[in-house]
Every structure is written in C-alpha cells, then in structure tokens.
C-alpha cells in the first residue's frame, strides 16, 4: 500500500508529471489573490455599513433592503464577498485536510464534503440575496407585512 502525496505548490515545471496541472499551485495562487480582494471587499463593506451615514445605528431591515439591495452595485459587491469568502475558507480547510489526513480515501471524502458544503452555502446565500433584492416585502403568518 502506497501513501498518495499531495504535490508541492512550487514544484518546478521540469519535475512535474507530463500533462498534469499542478492544482496545489493554482490553489496557492488563488489564496493570495482572493485574500487581497477579500481585504478590500470587507473593509469597504464595514465602512459602508458601520461608519458612513448614521453608523451602526442605521443598520436594520429597511437600511439593507431599501438602501443597499436596491442598488445593483452593492448586491454584486455582497455576492462577490460571499462567494470569495466561502471559496477562500474552503480552500484553506482543504489545505489543512491535505496536511493532516494521510490516507487517500478519507482525504478525498473530506475534500468532497468540504466542496459540497461550500457549494450549498453559496447557493443558499445567493438565493437570500436575490430574494431580498426582488421581493423586499416580508409577510408573516400573522398578516403583518414588513416592507420598504
């Protein structure tokens, strides 16, 4: 029984197996680029929500639905923040699994579970963003409606 190893991200091109893409290098580069983008996305998100305007006192259903999600720029901004953060975190967890799980079977099962959970969370998060952008009025079972 042989132990399958994960390819080192900085393996020189001459040493790599012919025709194989180095996914570890791709993941390594993605973490650097997405990390820089996430810093900008998060700082602007925090500034626009907590500092600009009335600060933290303005945060509420009306602020999010009427002010933020009525502008497509902020809807795309929040969707990009959601997607990048989840993929960045999942890729980090995948790296931890690769570092500490030595057997290929459990490693593959955990990796598939991580990416499946990531995809489900992205889909659910985008559904919430789209629903609030399209239908900002919530109707409760008691007949009370919260609208913009």
TrEMBL record:
Chain segments annotated as transmembrane: 30-51, 71-88, 109-134
SUPFAM superfamilies: Fumarate reductase respiratory complex transmembrane subunits (SSF81343)
Domain of life per record: Bacteria
UniProt cross-references to InterPro entries, sorted A to Z: SQR/QFR_C/D, SuccDH_FuR_B_TM-su
Cell compartments where the protein resides: Membrane
Keywords (A to Z) from UniProt: Heme, Iron, Membrane, Metal-binding, Transmembrane, Transmembrane helix
Protein name: Succinate dehydrogenase
Organism from which the protein derives: Gulosibacter bifidus
